Prior knowledge:
There is one protein chain. This protein is of the alpha+beta class. It contains three helices and three strands; from the N terminus they run ββααβα.
Amino acid sequence: MVKEDSGKNMVRCIVLKCPLCGQQRPYPVKNPDAPLIQMRIKELGFGEHGIIAHGGSPEEEFREKVWENRKVMDVDKSLVSKVEDKQKKKKWGNYGLDP
């Protein structure tokens, strides 16, 4: 699902992976280094997953670990569309985005 070339069918994403369950979540971004994007994904994105999948909001130290292990990669546009169309609780999954 991850391709090396950045073609028209690819979307630049920040991919987070939960170390507890292994599920992944690609976040489409134009600029992965933008501070506001980083804060939003780190705080809201993974925090939401922790509450839904693991019963509570993860500690700041745990969020930092997840953020440090993030990957910036080009992801197939059709996969990103499928993820974005899912209901909030279903956006994390096993998408095979490990490089």
